[in-house]
Automatic annotation (TrEMBL):
GO molecular function ontology, one term from the record: zinc ion binding
Keywords linked to the UniProt accession: DNA-binding, Metal-binding, Zinc, Zinc-finger
The THAP-type domain, residue ranges: 1-86
Name of this chain's protein: THAP-type domain-containing protein
Cofactor(s) essential for the protein: a divalent metal cation
């Protein structure tokens, strides 16, 4: 059957050569189609052709051909009797053309050298592929060396042949002018933006140091990243612990060293964690007993350190469970479970570390400013409030409504040492409870010893409670009614004492300010976190104590 049948087309993967395009597209004029060797005359050669096509369960039909673009010499020859140039072996032709700005100059480009030299490139998937590729060059004197010869299937194909190239157009990307005709590669193995006949493209060079084996190695590495969520949480945790500044912003701890130190304490405190998933959920469960992980249920996705970071980041930034789940690549329920578990666990470890200092410790670390004015003060107290979501129960609404904040709040009594470290944190009470009531019922008075001095604001009417323990209350003097008219006044000595007390009492307010840099406490607390409110307050106070002292020694 003649090779000029109009229904022939190339069956190579990615090739668009079709005999029906010959009349419509100029680049198809010199493309030839070669039939498969027959099973009867050349079975081995036919099998080799089929193997090179890499098409599973493929059997050629009558109109199936392989075009001349896939042969190293443009057609089957004695040295290269089968197609070898395909998309899978990264075949590329490097074209370098001289930049011309005039259309007339491009039309006048002519090839003067008629010596045609065919150089056979090595296999692209061989180690030498990166150093030797099939090239077509247009020299400065307009001489053209073309790799590839068009021909008919006539049974005799010489390896080397001289061809004179006469008047033609300058070749564009993917096209070559041979023997006065326009030959264009209908498929090129570079990006689509370069596979264009736009003459604005001036100079083209394609070079790669990657072989097929290198690409396969990269593909294997990419397939290992089957869990993008794991990659995301590793990147986020690495960003959190990148430097001291990031640690401070994300966790509230002053440095990466302290972050690792706190984690080491927690890791040694308990080898296993019983994860919370409801009341009584951790009572009877079988736990994983490997060296790194110990938890019930499915295999752990987050490492212990990642869970620790998750808890601190949420405590510091008050991010929702949805955002935390997105950052760590887990479910929202898992975030809640991890956060609840670690908050209770850290509370158990940190609560005993918030100790009331002894007198010897106070004297050793007391700032010189305190030692000069108030040498016997061992605690500065104040109450602070935290906004909560309005309860549904009317009784709870009444108990938590603060007339001072005009909002539903929790109230806690905090005490700091003269250096500014938290030494006492009470449980949370409703916002309508008085300061005196919290001081009396919170257990604060149990720490008072005879001779102690407690500094507070005027609102703490607890002088009688301290007198029972032979302690002294230091508060600013109250104003007195003027005997000579309306209004109230303070004497000069009382004004000076008020200033001195206010100067030192401000440290407890600064400590509370540090406490509220943890946005889980400064923001309005949601209802579902109310059971963790006491624990979060203690943990935040302990983390604040790890920062630099508020008062210089």
């Amino acid at each position: 059957m003649s090779s000029e049948t109009k229904s022939y087309f190339c069956v190579a993967e990615g090739c668009n050569s079709d005999e029906r395009k010959r009349g419509r597209y100029g680049y198809m004029k010199d493309v030839r189609f070669y039939p498969f060797p027959t099973q009867k005359r050349a079975p081995a050669l036919r099998k080799r052709w089929l193997d090179l096509l890499r098409r599973e369960n493929y059997e050629p039909k009558r109109n199936h051909r392989v075009c001349s673009l896939h042969f190293k010499e443009g057609r089957p020859t004695e040295n290269h009797p089968y197609p070898e140039l395909f998309a899978y072996n990264n075949f590329k032709e490097s074209l370098k053309m001289r930049s011309t700005t005039s259309i007339s100059k491009r039309e006048q480009c002519m090839v003067k050298d008629t010596q045609f030299d065919i150089s056979v490139p090595p296999r692209v998937d061989s180690p030498a592929a990166s150093e030797s590729v099939l090239q077509t060059q247009i020299n400065n004197d307009n001489s053209l060396f073309v790799a590839g010869v068009s021909g008919e299937l006539n049974g005799s194909w010489p390896v080397n042949q001289e061809i004179e190239v006469t008047d033609h157009e300058c070749p564009t990307v993917g096209s070559l002018s041979v023997t006065g005709t326009h030959v264009e590669m209908d498929h090129c193995y570079i990006s689509g933006s370069f596979c264009s006949n736009d003459m604005s493209t001036r100079d083209i060079g394609i070079q790669t140091t990657l072989t097929t084996a290198d690409i396969k190695v990269l593909e294997e590495k990419s397939t290992k990243l089957e869990d993008p969520e794991k990659l995301m949480r590793e990147l986020f945790v690495n960003k959190v612990v990148k430097d001291d500044k990031n640690v401070q912003m994300y966790t509230g701890l002053p440095s990466k060293t302290i972050l690792n130190g706190v984690y080491d304490i927690l890791e040694k405190a308990s080898p296993t964690l019983k994860y919370w998933s409801g009341q009584g959920s951790a009572a009877k469960k079988k736990y994983q007993k490997d060296s790194l992980n110990a938890k019930s249920g499915p295999k752990r996705k987050l490492s212990r350190f990642q869970e620790f970071v998750l808890t601190l980041v949420r405590l510091r930034l008050a991010l929702t469970t949805f955002v935390m789940a997105d950052l760590f690549g887990v479910s929202t329920s898992r975030v809640s479970q991890v956060f609840t578990t670690w908050i209770n666990f850290m509370f158990t470890i940190f609560k005993p570390l918030l100790k009331w200092p002894s007198r010897n410790v106070l004297k050793k670390f007391m700032p010189s400013s305190f030692r000069a004015k108030f040498p016997n003060v061992n605690c500065i107290i104040d109450c602070t409030e935290f906004f909560i979501k309005k309860p549904r129960n009317p009784t709870a609404q009444s108990q938590t409504f603060s007339s001072y904040k005009h909002h539903n709040t929790y109230k806690a009594l905090v005490g700091v040492s003269p250096s500014g470290a938290f030494s006492f944190i009470s449980n949370l009470w409703g916002g309508n409870v008085s300061d005196r009531y919290i001081t009396k019922e919170s257990g604060f008075l149990d720490n008072i010893q005879p001779g102690d001095e407690i500094m507070a604001d005027r609102g703490f009417l607890i002088r009688d409670l301290l007198l029972h323990r032979r302690a002294k209350l230091i508060i600013p003097p109250f104003t007195r009614k003027c005997s000579w008219g309306k209004g109230k006044y303070l004497s000069a000595s009382e004004i000076l004492r008020t200033r001195n007390i206010a100067k030192f009492r401000i440290h407890v307010e600064r400590a509370i300010g540090r406490l509220k840099t943890f946005h889980m406490l400064s923001n309005t607390m949601p209802t579902n976190l109310k059971p963790l409110a006491d624990q979060m307050l203690v943990i935040c106070a302990f983390l604040c104590n790890l920062q630099k002292p508020l008062v210089k020694k």
